[in-house]
Amino acid sequence: MPVPIVHHTALDLPGAEPTASRPVTVRARDLDVTHQMQPHSHAWGQVTFTLQGVVRVTANHSSWIVPPQRAIWIPPDVMHSVDILEPARLRPVFVLARRAPFPGQECRVLAVSALMREMLVALEQLDPADHGVRATLLGELMLDEVTRLATRPIRVPLPHDKRLASLCAALIADPGTPHTLDAWAGQVGASERTLARLFEKELGMTFGQWRQQVRLAHATPMIARGMPLAQVAEQLGYASQSAFSAMFRKTFGTTPSAFFADRA
């Protein structure tokens, strides 16, 4: 029997909106995999962050998998959806539009610092109606800290073409599948040559490069929760742990173990 999906948006939260006197607010939302936030937008910006669990954020024709070590900045008025991949202690930070820490409509991946995490927990303890000195100072320091967080280049762009979208959705659902582009061509109704051209035209990368981004995105929460690298490599379709580690080092300039030790 299929699991029912419960739909929520930020607008379901009374009093969630940041104001001029309280430009930064935090909401606690503990959600399981039956919850899904359908595409929506709001007038304020949002830092999507979880204390625990994993979510997938889709916006601007891109998808990001977000474990507790990362957050996603979503600018005001950008349409986005959130899927809960593992039970999550979601803590979205809402930011008044005119206090947005970054310009433009681009989403950004942020490496969450220990200071950011502690400030978020502290701000969560305050009443939303509290406009006192502590709320003001925490909000201002959080806005400053967000701009200092390192960005991480794991972005999975999504296509417009229906044939390519079908292929991409299947690979996101099962990134370890070994299918070649020729094998996918037979399944989605387009030639290998057409698909290769579409990857370059719509996503700005080859099929192999895009699949690598998908696998990296899925690897992050696996490693973060302590899964052995050999098992991660196997689940994601790599021939060996060393092959996976080499790909990781090429992207981030360090090994998976060193990367996550640094984030701890």
Search tags:
264 residues; alpha+beta; Jelly Rolls; Arc Repressor Mutant, subunit A; six-stranded mixed sheet; five-stranded antiparallel sheet; 20% strand; globular; disordered N terminus
Helix content: 25-40%
Mean pLDDT: 85
Quaternary structure of the protein: single chain
CATH class of the largest domain, named Mainly Beta
Tally of structural domains:
2
Beta fraction of the residues?
Answer: 15-25%
SSE diagram, text form:
Elements: E1 6-7, E2 24-26, E3 29-31, E4 35-40, E5 45-49, E6 54-59, E7 62-66, E8 70-74, E9 80-86, E10 88-90, E11 93-95, E12 108-111, H1 114-124, H2 133-148, E13 156-157, H3 162-173, H4 181-188, H5 192-203, H6 207-224, H7 229-235, H8 241-252, H9 256-263
Helix pairs in contact: 1-2, 7-8
Written account of the structure:
The protein is of the alpha+beta class and about 260 residues long. The protein folds into two domains: about 140 residues, Regulatory protein AraC (Jelly Rolls), CATH 2.60.120; about 100 residues, Orthogonal Bundle (Arc Repressor Mutant, subunit A), CATH 1.10.10.60. About 40% of the residues lie in helices and about 20% in strands. It is built from nine helices and 13 strands. The strands form three sheets. Strands 1-4-9-6-7-13 form a six-stranded mixed sheet. Strands 2-11-5-8-12 form a five-stranded antiparallel sheet. A two-stranded antiparallel sheet has the order 3-10. A hairpin with a 2-residue loop joins strand 6 and strand 7. The radius of gyration is 19 Å and the shape is globular. The termini are far apart. The relative contact order is 0.12.
